Structure formats: structure tokens, C-alpha cells
Amino acid sequence: MATYDLVVIGTGPGGYVCAVRASQLGMKVAVVEKNATLGGTCLNVGCMPSKALLHASEMFEEAGHSFAKMGVSVSSPKLDLPAMMNFKQQGIDGNVKGVEFLMKKNKVDVLKGTGKIISAGKVEVSADGKSQVIETKNIVIATGSDIARLKGIEIDEKRIVSSTGALSLDKVPGKLLIVGAGVIGLELGSVWKRLGAEVVVVEFLDRILPGMDGEIAKQFQRILEKQGFAFKLGAKVTGVDTSGKTLKATVEPAAGGTAETIEADVVLVCIGRVPYTDGLGLKEAGVALDPRGRVQIDPHFATSLKGVYAIGDVVAGPMLAHKAEDEGVAVAEIIAGQAGHVNYDVIPGVVYTTPEVSSVGKTEEELKQAGVAYTVGKFPFTANGRSKVNQTTDGFVKILADAKTDRVLGVHIIGIEAGEMIHEACVLMEFGGSAEDLARTCHAHPTRSEAVKEAALAVGKRAIHM
Ligand code: FAD
Ligand code: NAI
């Protein structure tokens, strides 16, 4: 029977990063993975394939619509979907191989099979009808999440798809009906819209992207509508008739009322994700779940069973790869006796559409609700020189600072490369910086990031270019 300091169950961004950090700290580590490849949701059916398709479809869209105005004359681009899917697969393979390499480099044993916690210190690994029990001082549960389903609507991953099926459609749907105007709906809706689908999004709430700053979400909705998205807000899909050639979705007002039918070739259900704990044996082992089915942890990631910890999508908090990674590092350090820590006030969120949307810290709604007095600085990309010359002026930067101390409490950006620009705000906020600090930091010209500096100047009502 092999004996380890740490066994990590799951090799998504939480699990594999935790294993690497634990190995760096001198532990003997194994990871258990039931999927054929390492890397979890993120690398196989999440972040990476979606970003590959977003990139490729954006190039397709640019070639068709933006080149001519810059004097680049090309014939109308033709879509080779199998080649685009192959491009996506190459990206997945490259990243998955990268994780395999990291496991080898850090001398982490990879145990293929389904992990089940027998008791503190014992993990059973089963594959192909065989099982073995591994002894370990510590266990980290990093089993991630699964798609949330709609009652009565069966996902066949062909016509009624989750994100997984929507990443692998074999032809562009004439009409794509998306249930849920969250991150997945808007990212994958963008992919298929650019490739030629008509996209209708049905959202239960009266706004898109719940949780994001309301003003940002409103402007983003307008931008997406200009791109051709149609939104049905305050509505829910209650059933899908699959008997005919086209799907017939029944759509009702969220509050109840007269139903209508929307026809579509493909329905994408993306109404959130749920923690994945199937087959882990948590109940029998005595690992408690919270009321929402997430593994319950204390501030040090410890579960109710001694020596068993949990991180990533399977615990509370935003279901984001970088949150899982940071928790992986923190828990490894805690197990090693160090002071591992995650600052949940500074976890950026990015929607990788065109333009991108990014955000860190508090929204205006959250500050209002908490009764915090704040000042707002805003700067539009229409007034940013680099954006003007590139003719990509959609969006703006919004900075929220404490009215008394000027400390930056939240930053929200819509714009090209917003997902890169947000990180200067993250660093600033980690150091408790003020809008004045940001405003007095020299920014290279001409860059889009100058709009961040100008928004910081605008907090003090002294933006230069507006
Ligand atoms: P996962 O990545 O889900 O990994 C869990 C692993 O555990 C899986 O490999 C699974 O097979 C394995 N496992 C489960 N149970 C067992 C068991 N009993 N035994 C052995 N192995 C087991 N986040 C971002 O930050 N940025 C993005 O751009 C982004 N894009 C996304 C796009 C899509 C379409 C989706 C669906 C998600 C996206 N996410 C994104 C979210 C991101 O994928 C997750 O937050 C992240 O993968 C969570 O990491 P994790 O390590 O907790 O779990
Ligand atoms: P989400 O939570 O972002 O959005 C789900 C949307 O569906 C919400 O707007 C919700 O109000 C709506 N909804 C719920 N029930 C509904 C119903 N019955 N009818 C109509 N609308 C309904 O979830 P999503 O988009 O499925 O993504 C899952 C997770 O994956 C997210 O938590 C996100 O963090 C992560 N992710 C992150 C990405 C990124 O960081 N760029 C990209 C993709 C996913």
C-alpha cells in the first residue's frame, strides 16, 4: 500500500496546482483523476476550448467585417468548421500535455480512476473494475462542478446541449436558443453568432450577467444587441418539444403568464453549475455538505473530517479557475504549516466576448447596499487615442473609490482587452491603493490602459482627455 503526504482528488486547475505547490514544499503527492485526460473542466470542456473558439470565431468575424475599412481587401471568408474544431482540439491537447509534464517534473504520481474517501487517511481508487486503497496523511477534494439541469428538459448534447455540446457542434445552427444570460451563454452565444447563427437568449432575471455592476451590464447588453443578439429578459423556458425537425421551446414570463413558443435548431442550457461530489463517499466518510450541496469548509479549507480539505468549484465562492488555483496553493501551504491565504475581495472576473467585460471588487449596487459612501470615476474608450485610431471605441472604465479615504473598492471595464487591463487594478487593490495612486502612475502612450488612469483621474474630477 502506497503512502503519501497528500492525495488530491481531481486534476482541474484547483487540484493540479495544489499538487505542484505541495510537491514544491517537499510533500510526497499523488493526484487521482477519473477522466481520461488531466486538467479538469477548465482545460477539457471549459476555459480553454471556449477561448480557442472565441479567438477563431473573432478572426472569422474580423476578416469578414473589419478588414475592408482598414484597406485590407480579402475575399469573403469561408468557414471550415472541422478545421476550427481541430484548432480548438490542438489547444486542449497542448495544455493537457502541459499538466502531464508538470506532474512528472514535480514527481507527482498520477493515479487514473475514481477516488472515494474511505475514512481519514484512506482513498480508494477504482478503474476498470479494479480498486486499490491509498494511504495518505492528507486529502484534498478538488472534484469541481457539473452542469446544472432544467427539470423536464433532457440534454442530449446534440440538439439540446450544455456548454460541452455547444463547444463541439458539427454545424452552425440556423437558430440558437440560449437559456441563461450568464457567462457561458454570452461567450458561446458570441462564438455561434459570429459563425452565422441567429441567437436568442432567454434570461430569468430582468438583466444580463447577474453579479456584475448594473451599469456595465446595461451597456454590454446594448453592445450585444448591436451585434445581433436578441434578449428575452424576465422569462423562463419551461419545456422543449423535440418531436419535430426544429425544436419548439415553451417560454413563459418569469412571474408566470401567457406562454409563447420559440423555434430553434439548437437549445443551449447554461443556467449555472453545481458542485460535483458523486461517488466520493462523503456521507459515509463523515464529510459534511452545506445546504447547497457544496463541501463545507472552515476558513482554512478544512472539512468536517480531520485531514480532509476541499477547494475550487466544489466549495463556496465564484466558480472560476483562478480562484480554484489560488485555493490550491493556499491549502498546500496550510498543510505544510505555512500561512496560506486567499483574498476573496480581489478575485477578478472576465467575460471573454468582444468587447471583453472585466471586474474586480465591489459593484456600485453592493456599495449602495452596504451603505458605503463612494465616488465614481468613469472614462469612455471613445476618448482614448489608441481606441480611436483602431476604431474600437465601445465601452468604458469605471472606478469606485471610498469617498473618505480614496481607497479603490471596485473597478469595472467594458472594452477590447479589458481582461488584461483589470490586473493593474488587482495589484493596486491588493496593496490597498487609492485612485490617486493609480492616477499618478505613469501609463505608456498610446495604450488602452490610459483609460484606466483617466478613470482614476476622473474620481478626483480631473480627467485630462474628457
Ligand atoms: P474542475 O476543473 O471541474 O476539475 C475537477 C476534476 O475532478 C475533473 O477532472 C474531474 O474529472 C475530477 N473528478 C471529479 N470527481 C472525481 C473522483 N471521484 N475521482 C477522480 N477524479 C474526479 N473559469 C475561468 O476562470 N475562466 C474561464 O474562462 C472559464 N471558462 C469556462 C467555460 C466553460 C464552458 C465552463 C463550463 C467553465 C469555465 N470556467 C472558467 C470555470 C472553470 O472551468 C472552473 O471554475 C474550474 O475548472 C474549476 O476548477 P476545479 O479544479 O475546482 O474543478
Ligand atoms: P451563470 O451563473 O454565469 O449564469 C446563469 C444565468 O442563467 C443567470 O443569469 C441566471 O439568472 C440564469 N438562469 C438561471 N435559471 C434560469 C432559468 N430557468 N431560465 C432562464 N435563465 C435562468 O452560469 P453559466 O453561464 O452557466 O456559467 C457557469 C459557471 O461557469 C459560472 O459560475 C462562471 O463563473 C463559470 N464560467 C466562467 C467563465 C469566465 O470566467 N469567463 C466562462 C464560462 C463559465
Runs in which pLDDT lies below 50 for 5 or more consecutive residues are: none
Mean pLDDT: 97
The overall strand count is 22
How much beta, percentage-wise? 25-35%
First and last CA, distance: 69 Å
Give the class from helix and strand content and strand pairing. Answer: alpha/beta
The helicity comes to 25-40%
Total domain units:
3
The helix tally amounts to 14
**The CATH homologous superfamily of the largest domain:** FAD/NAD(P)-binding domain
Based on CA inertia axes, which overall geometry fits? globular
The fold-level CATH name of the largest domain is: FAD/NAD(P)-binding domain
CATH class of the largest domain: Alpha Beta
Family: Belongs to the class-I pyridine nucleotide-disulfide oxidoreductase family.
GO molecular function: dihydrolipoyl dehydrogenase (NADH) activity
EC number: 1.8.1.4
Pfam families: Pyr_redox_2, Pyr_redox_dim
Structure description:
The longest helix is centred in the N-terminal third of the chain and has 25 residues. The model has no long low-confidence stretch (mean pLDDT 97). The chain has 14 helices and 22 strands. Strand 4 and strand 5 form a beta hairpin. With 466 residues, it is α/β, with parallel strands linked by helices. Helix 1 runs parallel beside helix 9. The strands form 5 sheets. Strands 1, 2, 3, 4, 5, 6 and 17 form a 7-stranded mixed sheet that branches. The chain has a 5-stranded parallel sheet with strand order 8-15-9-10-11. A 5-stranded antiparallel sheet has the order 18-19-22-21-20, with helices on both faces. The protein has 3 domains: 206 residues, 3-Layer(bba) Sandwich (FAD/NAD(P)-binding domain), CATH 3.50.50; 112 residues, FAD/NAD(P)-binding domain (3-Layer(bba) Sandwich), CATH 3.50.50; 111 residues, Enolase-like, domain 1 (2-Layer Sandwich), CATH 3.30.390. The structure holds flavin-adenine dinucleotide and 1,4-dihydronicotinamide adenine dinucleotide. It catalyses: N(6)-[(R)-dihydrolipoyl]-L-lysyl-[protein] + NAD(+) = N(6)-[(R)-lipoyl]-L-lysyl-[protein] + NADH + H(+). Its cofactor is FAD.
